[in-house]
Amino acid sequence: MSGAAIRMFSDLLSVSTLTLATCGSDGTPHAAPVYFAADDGLRLYFFSDPGSQHSLDLNQDPRAAAAIYPECDGWQEIRGLQLHGEAHQVPPGSEWETAWALYAARFPFVDELKDAVSRNALHVFIPHWVRLVDNRRGFGFKQEWTLP
User: Fold this and answer.
1) What CATH number is associated with residue 79?
2) Beta bridge partner(s), residue 34
3) Does pTM surpass 0.70?
4) Quick check: 21 and 34 in contact, CB under 8 A?
5) Could you report the per-residue pLDDT of 55-101, keeping only the tens digit for each?
6) What is the pLDDT of residues 14-57, one digit of tens each?
7) Cβ(91)–Cβ(133) under 8 Å?
8) CA 77, CA 91: separation in Å to the nearest integer?
9) Domain count, the chain
10) What is d(CA 115, CA 57) in angstroms, rounded to the nearest whole number?
11) Is residue 51 within 8 Å of 120, Cβ to Cβ?
């Protein structure tokens, strides 16, 4: 996916929350809202309690889906991103530090929550497939990308 494509939906990446969907070891689906920060490569970073259902699910199976969309009142305004990919915990190191800087810049209140954050794990969602839905361009408008 080109930088131009990512810029095309940069306004959607400014939404604070994505819905993360995972699947449990018994096949039970689970969806959870999480705050996220995106880098220029469309890697989506989020913090999560290691004991949360989606963290437990990701430890068993990294495959996940996500949806990012702003609130709207009419069908003509429906737009958002649907993503398939994998998510995993980010170990301490340079990626963790870079992600933390992105996250703290996006959500400055986390500086006040360092103790709570330290009890959580930083994860990254790496999309392999992205679909843009944008009814502002016509009912049912979709555009898709497959990422390496």
Assistant:
1) 2.30.110.10
2) 18
3) yes
4) no
5) 999 999 999 999 999 999 999 999 999 999 999 999 999 999 999 99
6) 999 999 999 999 999 999 999 999 998 899 999 999 999 999 99
7) no
8) 39
9) 1
10) 24
11) no
